[in-house]
Each structure stands twice: as C-alpha cells, then as structure tokens.
Amino acid sequence: MWKVVDDRELGKIRPASFASHIQSARASSLHLSNRKEFVTAHKGAVNSFQVDLTEKRYLLSGASDGSIAVYDVQHATDYNGGGLVAKHTSLFVVDKRQDFSHKYSVSSVAWYPVDTGLFMTGSLDHYVKVWDTNTVQVEMNFKMPGKVYGIAMSSVSTSHMLIAAVSEDVQVRLCDISSGAFSHTLSGHRDGVWAVQWSTSNEWVLVTGGCDGAIRFWDIRRAGCFRVLDQFQTQFGRRPPLLKSSTKGSVPESSVASTSASAKVKVPQKKAPCGGGAKQSSINKGWTKGSVLQRQHPGMLSSRNRASAHYGAVTGLKVTEDGMYLLSAGTDSRLRLWDIESGRNTLVNYEAMRLQTNKPIQLAVTPDTELVFVPGLTAARAYDIWSGRTILTFRGHYECVNCCWFNSQDQELYTGSNDRQILVWSPDSMVEEEVENNEKGPKRSLDEDCWSD
Amino acid sequence: MATDGGKLSSLIEKATHSTSRELDSSLLNSIKAIVKSSDANVHVTVETLMENMKKNHSQVRYLALLIIDELFMRSKLFRSLLVVNFDGFLGLSTGFRRNMPLPPPASIASILRSKSIELLEKWNDSFGCHYKQIRLGYDYLKNVLRFQFPNLPETAARLRHERREREIRSKEILVNKFENLKSNYSSIKGEIRSTSDEISECFEIISGTNSKDNKFSCDSVDDENAVEESTSLAMRRIRLESLREGMIVHENSDNKAVFDMLRELYKLLTSKHLKTVQDSISVLVRVDASDVRFRDSALKELIDIRNDLQLAKKRCEELGCVAPDDDENRILWEEGKIEVESNENSNLSGEANKDMVYNSYGDESKNDASTSGKESIDEETIVAGDGFGPSSPRQQLLAKAPVMTWGSFLDSWGMVRDVPANQRGMELECHWGRVDYDAVIPAEKIAELNVQMTYYNEQHGEIRPCFAPLKKGGLCQRRDLRVCPFHGPIVPRDVEGNPIIANTSQKHDSIDIGGPSILKTSTKDSDVSFQPSDLETLTAEELAKQAVKNVRTREGKEREKDKNEKRALKRAKLAKVREHNEMVLRQSALASTSQGLGEVMGEDIEALHHTSSEYKEKKQTLASMLRKKVTPRDRLARRLLNAHATEATVRQLTHGEDSNYREAFPNQW
Fold first, then answer.
1. Which intervals of the chain are annotated as region Disordered (chain A) (predicted)?
2. Number of domains making up chain B
3. Tens digit of pLDDT for each residue in B515-547?
4. Class of CATH domain A2-237+301-431
C-alpha cells in the first residue's frame, strides 16, 4: 500500500488508478466485520436491499415478514463491547402493524435514484408501493396482476420516472410515478419473471430474466423485445476484436455478417446494437422465411424466439457499472457473463457453487468490474468476473443468502439472508487496528492466549 | 513438526475414542502441551478436531467438543481458526440443521446438544465481542431457532441479586428491632428489674426462715461434736455435707406460699425475660446502628442483667423449688420416682435414687459395685441413720454373692428373656436380603453367649520341709507337697519333729484367734484349734493351712452327704420332668412350628436348670449353661428319636423351618 502511495506522490501513477488500486485491494480483502453490525429489524428473511445512489449512506431493506427498514451505514447508533462493536439500528421500520404496509413478503426494494425522498417496494401481495421516506407513508400504489418479484428504476434516466416491475405474470409492466399508472406492458416471456434490471448505459433499455430461462432486452420506446440471449451463442474472451471495431457503429452490417455467420442460421436477429433497431429490422426481413412471420408486427418477431439463457429460471441479473456486460444467475446454478454489445455468452466458467432456486437473488458487482458477489446457499462468494475463480467465500450466515450489495464508497459488502441477519463484510483496515491497539489496552487482554498449564 | 502433528492427531483420536463421559485428563494435558508449543500444531488440531466432529458418533463428537472447549478457552489462534467455519461446527455439535441431525446414540446426542449450547453461551459471554461469528451463532440459535439456553450468568446474577435483597431486608428488620428496643428499653429493663427484685425478696424470706430452722440442727451437730472429740476426717466431711444439706431449704407448709411465688417468678424469668434479654443482645450485636453509644451501653447493661438473671435462675434451681429438668425428663423418670416413693419415705429424691441403685446392684452383687457400694452404704448408714446394720438381709446377701469380673453380660443379669436382634436404633441395610425386624435372639442363646470363663490360678506357696526327726539327728529337710517318701504324710511338727496334730484335737475350744478374715469366718464352726504353746512354733500361715485342711475334710464329708441327698432329689425331679416332657412332646408332635416346640423344650430345660441352680453353686450354673450349647434342634432330634414322635413331625418341622427361613430371606438358598 505504501509503495502505491509513494508512486502517487512521485506522480508515477494517476489519481484515478491510484484510487482504483486502493479500492480493488480493499475489495479483495473483505471479511466478516467485527466492528460494524446491523441490528436487524426483521423477523423474516431479508429478501432485498439497496443503498441509496446519491449519498451511499442509507440502506433500505425489505424482508419476508413484510417489513421495510432503513439503516444508516455510516453512523452507528450505539456501541457495544467497550466501543469495539458499532451497532447500526434501523432508522425506521415499517412492518405489518401499519395498515398501509405490505401484507406479505417484500420481495424487492429500490431507492428513487435521484434523491432519498422516495423509495419503492414490491411485494408478494401484488402491490408495488411508492413511499415518502420522510413521512414513511405510502404515496402511490400499483396493483400488479400477480406476485411482484422484482422492481427497478433506471439510475441513468433523465426523461422518465418508470418503475419496471416483474411479477408471476408473463407481462412486464412499467409504472409511471408521475402519472400513477402503468405506462407499458411488455409481453414476451412465457412464464413469470423474477429478475429485472435497467441498463446502466441507456435509459431506455430494460433487461428481464424469466422463469422460462430467457433473458430479454427491451427498448421501451418500441414494441416488443429486441434481443433474447442464447446461451449457445458464444464468444471467448472479453471482447472479440471484430466486435470492437463494430462498437464504433460505423459499419454494423459488415461486422455482423462476418462474425455471426454461423449463429444466424438459428437466431436471425441477434446482433443489433441498441438504438439501431430500424436498420436491423430491415435486415431481419430478408432472413425470415415463411408467410406467418411476415404478417406479424416487426416488434413482435422476437416473441417466437425461444432461445434460453439458462436451463431453468433466471434468478438474478446484474448489469456492470459500465453497462457493457450482464451477469445472470439461474436455477441451473450457473453464472453467465454476457456481452451486451454482442449478446453472446462469454463462456466464463465460474467455479461450481449451488445457488438458491426458490427465490430471486440479488447479485453485486464492484464498480471496476473486477468482482462479482454471488449469494450461494449459506455462503456468498466473490468471483473474479473474467476468470471465474473464487476470490473469497463469505461464510457467516446460517441460512440461505438472498442478496448482496457492494457499497462502493466504503468497499463494504452487505449480505442479507434467510436467518434475518444483514452482515457487513469489510476490508482490513490498518488504521482501525492501530486505533484499537492504542485505545484498548485493558480490553485486548480479554482475547489473548491464556494457557493455564 | 510433522511428527508432532502425527502424535497430536493420534492423541486426539485416542482421547475422543473413549466410552467414558469425561476426558482423560492426562491425554488432555499432553494435547494441550503439544498445541501450546507451536502455531502449526494449532492448525493441525483444529483440522483433526473438526474431522472428529464429523464422525458419525455422538460420543466421539462429544469428547471432541470437550477438547475444543478446553483449547478454545485458551488459545487465541485456535479461536480464530475455529470461528471461520463456526456455522459448520455448530451444525455438527448442536445438529440444528434439519438435514444434518446428530448421529445415533440418542442419549449422548442430547447430552452433546445441551453441552454445546451451554458452551456456546459461555463462549459468547467471554469472547462474543471479539468474534462476530460466535455472536451470530448465539443469536441465530437463540432468536431464530429459539433454542433454550441455560442462561447461566443471568441466573447467577439473579441469585446474587436475590441474596443481596434478602440481606438488605434482614438488615432492615434488624434496624427496626433495634429501634423498637431503643424505645422499649427502659420498660423492659424495669420489668426485669421488678421480677428480679421479687425473686430476691423471696430468697430473703426463705433464707430468713431457714436460718431459724437450721440453727437448732446445727447446734445439735455442734453438741455432738463436742461430745465426740476424736472425729475422723471422714466424719468431719460427712458433717459438713449434712450441714450443707441443712442449708438447703425444703418446702413445707410454712413457706409454701413463698415457694409458689418463686415458682411463678421462675417461670416468668425463664420463659420471658431471659429470652427477651437474649434476643435483644443478639440484635444489638448484629445491628450496625448509627447510635453506637446507646448500643454499647445497652449491650453492657443487658449482659449484666442476663448474668443476674442466670444467677437467680440457678439459685432457684438449687433451692429445688423448680425441677431443673424439662417436662420430657420428668416423664422419663416418673416410673423410677414412683418406685422410690413406694420404697422409702425420703423426700430427697437423689438419695432415694442412690438407695435404689444400691439395692438393685446389691442383689446382683457385682464385684466393683459391691465394694464401692459397701463404702457408700457405710456412709449412708451413718448419715441417714436408719437401720442398715451388718445383720441386714442385704449384708447377708452381699456376703454370699458371687464375685464376677465386670462385663456387659451384667446388664442382663438374671433376666431370662428373648432379645430383639434388629432393634438397636440403627437402620441396618443388609446386602443379603430384607431385614427381619422381628427377629429375636432366644434367651438360651443369650445365656450361651454370656457364659463366663474362669481361669485357674496356681497358688505358689512355700513347700515346707518334712521336719521329721532323723536317726542320725536333726530334721528331714526334704521338701514334698504331701507325702515324704521316707517319713510319710507331711504334718506340722514342733521343734523336735513331733507331729502336733494329735494334740490339737483335744483343746480346740479354748482358742479364739483374731486373724485374717478367712480364718475368722471359718472359726465359727471349726473344731480345729491349736495349743497356745504350739502357736509360738508355727506361723499363722501354717495354722491357717491346717485349719483349712481340717475344714475341707469335714466339709467334703458334709458335701458328700448333701450330694447324695441332692442326687436322689434330682433324680426324682428329673424323672418327673421327663415324664412331663414326654407328655408335652406328645402334644407338641401335633404342633407345626419348631418355634413352639423349641419354646416348650426350652421351658423344660429352664425348669430343670432352675431347680438345680437353686441348690448348686456357680460351677453348676456354668455347667448348665454349657450344656445348653446343645441346640434345641439337637435335643429335639434326640427326643424325637427316643420318644414316640413320628417322622412326619420331623418333616413338618423342617418344612416349617424352611418356609420360615425362605420367608425371612427370600433371596437366599
């Protein structure tokens, strides 16, 4: 560490790389924190949580007992064990005792991306609710056709306030907060949908993963989905050189024709980059055969596409911070990394681990796209995204882990589990240890060897 | 290191593969020593122990858990290694996962579970704040799975709290008592003072009357003294005693009222005042009051008062106005008192009791008791002055009582009765079956056990020389016991060697010798005496011997005659008894139990023994006792063989006995 500081001092490395170096070093040394703990306010499994995107300070969590709680991750409410353990009690809790709260398990929570004045929750009682944080009151209700499994708001949107909500219904709905009504109904999945994510690079693109094993990309400005991921459309490595040239967008036709010649036989419309829908559809027309397809609306063409991303249901999706890659987890206990640009499976072999199959899970990715945190059965794992090797195993929960969240500000990982706990995994801190050594002379003697004989 | 590791794992294997509920301490110590020596060993230990925890046997897991606890409490490294997979460890030790229950031996599995929960609590208490994993495990088991933790520290704290509260409460009570005492102090003191004043007044009255009464007696004693100047020391002591006795006033019609008063006061004193004083003293001692001055002074005063009261109480008891014994004692001794009163008219119960004792002892004629009894009787006769002269029947009885060595058999002297075998106030836990509380040791068995042995003590005396005149002059110096081979029987001779016995027979009436008691007793009916002139030449011992000899020969004759008579008498009696026995036997042949028959036989023998012992001396008694060694069963058998009893009886008897035996000792053969 000190060498890097020295290099930075001498100007050998740039500030950004210095910061990323420190951050990645910290992120790869996470372990169960003894200094910081959340005093869980939940009586049931923690299904989902999110730290707000503006301040990175408030952790919103929803649990299967219908309760919603907000914790301050920066400031501890009290200390325990002689100042050794910082306890973070919830700032407020909404549970079933309030008559406006959710009746059943809260499956998904999300902050309003712009500020912390609002947050959204989706529950198995078919409702999506929008809450005012300051008054802790429900501002808006959206009644969904079935159990809500996931909700999402785009972190990059500037022109819309849409909540994408997926449920056991096959249709994905977009709830418009400004009007209080459903603005879109996206049809395409053949089964309930568990996972939903907005693209982090394009405010119009939505990704959903369903129980039919399909991952669909939607451009909300158009009808129908524009891409279905196929696990057999593969490519090696991070980005094939030909595709790299195609990302420039100047010559899409030629690049598509050359790279995916073999794939086109099975799946005709697979290669268009986002935003190039018009051009693409014209090409597709040439490839489609038969009168049935021709009669359909161009946007509905992909509805016949039965390509699957996973064997079994897709339980979790995560778009990387740079918006170029998509990670998906399925009930086949596989983790796949997709190149969003090309829509191909990158064939990264993540080390075997069993994943939860009866619930959606929430993955987390470090901002520099180095590590992915995957909730396993009782232990979460950190994989190197590109090699698939297990970097860390987070063992501490007593039941299935449901969700992970990486707090990029503090390089801390939070995990929520069926055992009601939210655990904090923090990196080693030299400073903290020094402080501890200085401060707790008498305390330290408690945790020492004591051989009586 | 590698050898250490191998040794360590083998040690752990050995320690965990045992059937006992505890760890072998020596093995544990060696494990600890090795683990302590290096960090690598700690790693090996953790691995080995976790492997053992995975074994499919609760006993192995349990012992491994015990080792883990030992090391966990000691080594920091061990702790930090164990907590890495703490949920796995808890799953193996408590079996909280439904798909991984604890392995087979169900009883040990439950012990394992409770033990691990207890240990988890302990660890959480001591190291919880250092290890999040321990906290998490504890929290999970407690709050999610709702395991019942023993909650030891909390229980201990609660107990401590309760004790403290109790102490505080008792202190409050004490302080309250103290305050009460403080306010009531003067009144209590006044009450007590008035009582003690009354008591002392009573004493004064009594002693006043007493001194008048006593004057006369004292004077008379003095007069006596004047008369008999030459008083022995013993006499003086006796006089003093009697004087002291005289000082003690006895209740009579005159001072009855005073005594009644005194009795009431005494009761008040013992039941109320002494108790209150005692209580207040203890309160004062225990309380830590603010008012130290009052406490000290009151304590001092109270102790003085208590001493006064005790003095008064003692005096009351001395006066005899109150029986010092409590009710229980009185009841216990009631029987004896009645006897005493019927025997004697004395109102001095102590003396009467003494007499009683002497009487009973005198009859039994113990060796020691008789001697000591004699002394006290002498005293008594002088002190009490009533008729216990040497001619009293007691003296006569004493004279002919046998002299026995002391022994426990004297307790049951003269008693012919069965003794309960299992009723001695102790609970007997017999290994060999149930205890028969009704079992008795029959009287004859007791007698048999109490048979006394006597030792023959050889009497060494000087063997006198023959002293027969020799032809060559002088006297024969040969020493023989009875007969000299040359001069015939040895007889007392005079200086010249002439035998003196021939002379003595004619003049036996004329002498009266004051000598040893043994001679004295025999002189009465002795017709042997010596010439005064001969006495000079013979020592007293010789004379005594001669006399004894004479007496013996005569007594022997008498005895022979007596014996013949007795034998005839006895024969007649025996014949009678036999007749009776036969009759009884005939009857008892019908009886089913040997007990009944034995009793019948025993009675006969008793009767026989009784008749003979009336006439015979100790030797005969002992012989009969010895004869009793023939068990009733033998006798029965003999009699049955002789008499007309049938075999059926025997069978019946043995059958009855067997069944009795089986009933009494069901688990014996």
1. 240-262, 432-453
2. 3
3. 444 444 444 444 444 444 444 455 566 677 777
4. mainly beta
